[in-house]
Amino acid sequence: MNGRKRHLVVDTLGLVVRAVVHPADLQDRAAIPRVLTGITEHYPRLRHVWVDQGYTGQGRTWIEEHLGWTVEVVQHPSKPRGKWVPHGDLTDLRTVWFSYERFPPSHTGFRGVLPRRWVVERTFAWLLTNRRMAMEYDFLPTSSEARIYLVMIRLMTRRLARDVA
C-alpha cells in the first residue's frame, strides 16, 4: 500500500491473531514493539515465531529479550535453483530462445522455497480478495486495522457455515 505498512501476526493456519497498520516511514524491525506489545496477555502459549528477513537485527533481539520466544528467520535458499540457458542455433540470433532449467535440489540443507512464509502471503491474498482491501481507502490506520479484522471475521464465518451445512 502506498504510504502504509500492514503487519500481520497469524497462527499456523493463516488466521489473523493481530493486525497493525502504520505509516510507511517506520522500518519493519522498529515496528516489532508496536506489533507485539501485549500479545502475551491474550496468547500466553505462544513460544515460537517465524519472521521475515525484514525483522532481523533489533526486531529479533527485542522478541527474544522481552517476550522470551524463539525466533526463526525465514531466509531464501543460499544456492541458486536454476539458470537461463540458450537453445537453438547460436549463430543465428533469430532462432535462439531461452528456457529456465532447474537444478536438481541437493538433499543437504535444501528446505524448499521460503518455508512458513507462504502462510502469511496466503492471508494477505485472502484479504486482497475484498475490493476495499485492494486499495487504501481509509483515512486512519485504525480504520484499516478494523477492516482487516472484519474481513477475517467474514472469511471465518463463511467457512464455519460451509462446514456446518
Mind explaining what this structure looks like?
The chain folds into 2 domains: 109 residues; 36 residues, no CATH class. 38% of the residues lie in helices and 21% in strands. It is built from 6 helices and 6 strands. Helix 3 links the parallel strand 3 and strand 4. It starts with a strand and ends with a helix.
What is the topology?
Layout: E1 4-10, E2 16-23, H1 28-36, H2 39-42, E3 48-51, H3 58-67, E4 70-73, E5 82-87, E6 97-102, H4 117-128, H5 131-134, H6 141-164
Parallel strand pairs: 3-4
Antiparallel strand pairs: 1-2, 5-6
Comma- or semicolon-separated keywords:
single chain, 165 residues, alpha+beta, 2 domains, two-stranded antiparallel sheet, extended
Care to give the gist of this entry?
By secondary structure, the chain is α+β, with helices and mostly antiparallel strands.
List the secondary-structure elements in sequence, H or E: EEHHEHEEEHHH
- Rounded to the nearest angstrom, the distance between the terminal CA atoms is 37 Å
Strand order of the largest sheet: 1-2
Range of helix content: 25-40%
Helices, by number, come to: 6
pLDDT averaged over residues? 80
Count of extended strands: 6
Shape: extended
**Strand content range:** 15-25%
Q: Could you list the spans in which at least 5 consecutive residues all have pLDDT below 50?
A: none
The class by helix and strand makeup works out as: alpha+beta
